[in-house]
Amino acid sequence: MKATEAKLLEFLKRSPQFVIPIYQRTYSWTERECQQLWDDIMRAGERSDVLAHFVGSIVYVQAGLYQVTSQSPLLVIDGQQRLTSVMLILEALARALGDEEPVDGFSSEKVRSYFLLNPLEKGDRRYKLLLTQGDRATLLGIMQQKPLPDDGSMRVMQNFAFFENRIAGMNGDLKALCEGLAKLMVVDISLTRDQDNPQLIFESMNSTGRELSQADLIRNFVLMGLDPDHQSQIYEDHWHPMEVSFPQDGYGAHFDAFMRHYLTLRTGEIPNLRDVYTAFKDYAREPKVAEAGVDALVEDIHAFARHYSRMALGKEPDPDLAVAFRDLRELKVEVAFPFLLELYNDFVADLLPKADFLRAVRLIEAYVFRRAICAIPTNSLNKTFATFGRVLRKDRYLESIEAHFMTMPSYRRFPDDEEFRRGMALRDLYNFRSRSYWLRRLENFDRKERVAVDEYTIEHIMPQNENLSSAWRNALGPDWKRVQETLLHTVGNLTLTGYNAEYSDRPFPEKRDMHGGFRESPLRLNEGLAGIDVWNEDAITKRAERLTGVAVKVWDAPRLSPSVIEGYLPQADRAAEYTLADHPTVDEGGSMQPLFHALRREILALDPCMTEEIVKSYIAFKAETNVVDVVAQARRLRLSLNMKFQDLRDPKGITRDMSSIGHYGNGDVEVAIKDLDELPYVIGLIRQSLEQQMVGSEE
Fold this sequence. Notes:
Elements: E1 2-7, H1 8-14, E2 18-19, H2 31-46, E3 53-61, E4 74-78, H3 80-97, H4 108-116, E5 129-130, H5 133-144, H6 154-168, H7 175-182, E6 184-191, H8 198-204, H9 214-223, H10 228-244, H11 251-267, H12 276-284, H13 287-292, H14 294-312, H15 319-331, H16 337-348, H17 354-373, H18 381-386, H19 397-407, H20 417-426, H21 435-444, E7 457-460, H22 470-476, H23 480-487, E8 494-497, H24 500-503, H25 508-513, H26 537-554, H27 562-566, H28 593-604, E9 611-614, E10 619-622, E11 626-632, E12 637-641, E13 656-657, E14 669-673, H29 679-698
Parallel strand pairs: 2-4, 2-5, 3-6
Antiparallel strand pairs: 1-6, 3-4, 7-8, 9-10, 10-11, 11-12, 12-14, 13-14
């Protein structure tokens, strides 16, 4: 490596051509970075005391040579964002200059001949800068002053227009801009393949522009070390088609999210979004993956990227699946994508029939929505879907999915119809995060002539106005304030209308009978309102019962017979059941019975997800898994906390580290309790075990 200081324009003038390799990211500067560059240039140009302004480094590879001594292109490792942006400024400046020369060396012809073009060359060699495929045609079209491609680079077009507008605003006084450009300095860093590792240098660069996305790093890792022909083959066959399947605007974020789901599926571990690149490198270096080779790896990524773009980006060609995926997107079920990627891959491979796949997608939707309605914590969902594939029996694909949903315990449970109806009737659905989603699903259930819910607005039948009219107070009765406070935003009082402004706070009979009123409404959500005389608590409750009856069909639960479920239960769960009679010291009349029942009451009160399970050797209290296990002895209760000893906060020092000692129960922490006075402190220790389990699930 050799680094020298250089004026940027002189560097451009003496360099034959810069080529952005195919493994580099596309041009990605936004208006924010362009504005910063423009401000820096104008500041340097307007102030005589500013002799130079550094804009960063240009790192490039020229095989076998350290400096520019031949006409071979320079492959840019770092600096394309600055180079491209300056080129756009120079092209806009050349158009504005004409034959004028406000600063020596700055006329339209000189700017083009010195900095933008190689005038004596033909074809691609004519241009000083060639971008990657996604950007190349747009930049060349700008340089040639020709119509730009319809599918061209949004960033290149938008930023060129930005610089054109800034120059137009200077009203022909371009001296400061020219002088500022002349003061730009770079660090010219040349590498040689024989002695420098471009990949390591690339990773260690601190860019002064936009931070590299995980997608950029992954693409470079895959392609940079290959010979040029192999690079081109993989890029053309897989990487470029994969890139164009993601939106230009936000490509990095979409690809990073996809790759996180892909790695979760392939490894069973959920990488942090900022550590996707590191996780990918670890996966790519696993012996089995490395032995299969880079071609197999990229082909696999490409296949799953197609699945992802269809599910997550609205590109599904099958109309039934497209509707189901749209519902998932609106509900924001991103956590399920690792599992959905496996299902889609098996659907494409004809291992999962379409009808079963569609049913599985709807079950995932129902699972997530029912849990949200029932206010069950979401911190286990990542882990639930990351590990779902492990329980599949692909000879009984759909059945195994339904069975797993039906057998998940505690806070991972699939809410049954009764719990869901209760939550649906009482929940504040007006402020629910996916309000239009649940309204659309209820309205369009089991109908082919779908209603465009987006064309309507949500209506409170009983108004939101705190100062209700006397007509409304009389209808609601003497307890009107409580009724309004408790039922205002619930499903029984909410509907859709195109006449929201006309309805206003009118009494219910007027809303019902006016032109466009409920009596004339074609919406299914408004069925039955025409026959109601008084809108009060009873009417709201009865309508809620009707709509929640529809809801359990819209978000249908899995339904398998007990005999089928029995075959999916772990052997331990099918073993002989134990009772407290098998632990006589805590059973009725036992020496530890009062203390145990007080302890049990406090443990179960820690969280609604806590459950009790009695086994032969101890009594377990579980959330996701065991939190604390109680061994009933004659004069004490011996508790095992399911956590690492070093993670426990125990100011009194009453616990023991059992990590290297055999014992009943799960976990490394043991604590004994003998009387009720010790109970508050011990419950505090148990709470730590529960909290660690809940946080672990969230991560």
